[in-house]
Amino acid sequence: MNKKVLVLPGDGIGKEVCDAALPALEALDLPIELIYGEIGWECWMRDGDPVPAATWQRIEQVDAILLGAITSKPKKQAEAELPPALQGQNHRYVSPVIQLRQRLGLFANVRPSFYLTGNGKPYRMSVIRENTEGLYAGYDYRGIPEAIRPLVKHPNLERYGADEASCTLRLQTRFGLERLFGFAFEHAVQHGFDRVTFADKPNVMRESGDFAQEIFEAVAARYPGIRADIQNVDAVALWLVTRPEQFGVIVAENMFGDILSDLAGGVMGGLGLAPSANYGEGVAYFEPVHGSAPGMVGKDKANPAAMFLSIAMLLEHLGFAREAARLQDAVRNAIRSGAHLTYDLGGSAGTRRFADEVLALLHGQ
Amino acid sequence: MNKKVLVLPGDGIGKEVCDAALPALEALDLPIELIYGEIGWECWMRDGDPVPAATWQRIEQVDAILLGAITSKPKKQAEAELPPALQGQNHRYVSPVIQLRQRLGLFANVRPSFYLTGNGKPYRMSVIRENTEGLYAGYDYRGIPEAIRPLVKHPNLERYGADEASCTLRLQTRFGLERLFGFAFEHAVQHGFDRVTFADKPNVMRESGDFAQEIFEAVAARYPGIRADIQNVDAVALWLVTRPEQFGVIVAENMFGDILSDLAGGVMGGLGLAPSANYGEGVAYFEPVHGSAPGMVGKDKANPAAMFLSIAMLLEHLGFAREAARLQDAVRNAIRSGAHLTYDLGGSAGTRRFADEVLALLHGQ
Ligand SMILES: CC(C)[C@H](C(=O)O)[C@@H](O)C(=O)O
Ligand SMILES: CC(C)[C@H](C(=O)O)[C@@H](O)C(=O)O
Hints:
The structure is a homodimer. By secondary structure, chain A is α/β, with parallel strands linked by helices. Helix content of chain A is 40%, strand content 19%. Chain A has 3 domains: 1-106 and 278-365, Isopropylmalate Dehydrogenase (3-Layer(aba) Sandwich), CATH 3.40.718.10; 120-135 and 172-268, no CATH class; 137-169, no CATH class. In chain A, helix 8 links the parallel strand 8 (195-200) and strand 9. Bound molecules: 3-isopropylmalic acid (2 copies).
């Protein structure tokens, strides 16, 4: 039976990289049916909701989602930009990717980073980022909420008082951490990594650090063949730059994982290359780590490599591991050959030219 | 009149890099008197306090502090390692650097990163990290405190309840942000940077992002000659790897700044090179960003460059700008010549051999 994939090109260069990379599915001759849907900024400006009801309905009917890119703006700005007709109707802007992750229970954001460009030493690793709690749990306040005031006696509050402050709760739960760590070790087993590093900050956030450590160690004990360690997140950031080859899986709280995975994308050669996958309870979605890059739109400048590699992750998830590997090889070879690189990699080829190179390599395999 | 500097070599390689680099003060023939004091792990194991009262007293008498390195362990581990005679006396371990920053009101942690090794493009920037609040404010809990349970209704809490969770408050105050941003723009003016970038996450932490943005913009308005922008912290992490030359000053909350500054140290060529300064109300302290590296002790392996560069920052602070520049030049030339690099930079020279090279260059200037 055909697998169904919902394609949500989204904003800006999202559409361009979808158009350029999706022909890979044909080249690989796969029994996949594509369905299209809407998401993002245009939906927000038209309906006051960046994820339309029709898109949620289609999500129910598919085996995986492929997302292009999303324009994400700070809430105040997004709400101020709503057209006059939609103002005052209490439309609240919530980033569509966060909506997807939360509503679909996609708790594990996998962001692989590996040697592609020919600079530096070969390495291969994955950042696995918690996707539903931590600093992203949604408890962010201007002013210290009444309930919290008795707890907070910080000298910096003396001058202006508790209204002239902000406060964010970083929430971590046993439920969230157990499933995250379980996922990370399973990912390591399945992808042949021999080390899982939890990037945290236990020497400063001691209570939450102790709590997470206990859970991490309990899960690690079930995987005696895998080296498990806890490192300070700042040190991990540094080592990712200087010695990425030492890592296998790096697992982290939502905000730490957001930073480390972008960083790992930089080490890989930039966001033009970095793919990602979001797994969990509901249907998984796959997307390049890059944004919608409004300044690049229509210039045939975007690098479709991250989208090709996100499609490869999607194929692996749908059970087409061999085709996933073929696609990854084609991208790697197109980059190594260096003949038609996009401008982010120092070349002058357009989006389509590079994509054609990948497709030609696929056909020639 | 002589300036007084308190030298706190601290733990591990801290002593080694102090010994190797402090002769620079003699070579520069400066009217500086050195006083020595104790800090760190040995003090903790002896007295149950990593910053002895005698050290606090000496701090009162000096113009600046030079710190070597500190062994910082998670609280539980540190307290478990206390000798039996000190157990049960309610000794609470608090990292000595955090004690210094908080008690001396050293709110601005300056971590410069610049082109030294000859790899990549020339660049020069400073990360300025808030040092007294944010996620480091000290509100970290195992379990959700009773007072704030009514606020927290997260689905991840359903399975195991509010005791099987942890919670950390990220506190930011108008007082803290105003002085931080003011410091960052002044630093830009004094060091010839034309851009100040606030690395935050306003598209996710919207209320605190709005709050900080207002304060940042109000301060920026006083510096019309400097380009001021707010960027997502994840994007800043990526760009630091791929295009550090675009930045001038990056200013950030405590935890974000901790990560970004270690990362910037990696971009510089590793922690063997990265210096730092902590400024604020009380006496400023200067230290290499690296830790005490217990595994390296006694092997003549530590790179003293970060300590030389920290001394250069200290000299600038004490009003010896010309000598600071001379010392920086000597370090840069010793690294560029490549003849006696330490092993972190791919060489085989010992701590002292590299230091001697720097001292010889100083004498020869
Ligand atoms: C757009 C934004 C909300 C998102 C995030 O922070 O998770 C993005 O940076 C990402 O990493 O997918
Ligand atoms: C030792 C630790 C508490 C400290 C910090 O996190 O501030 C260190 O990482 C630093 O950056 O100076």
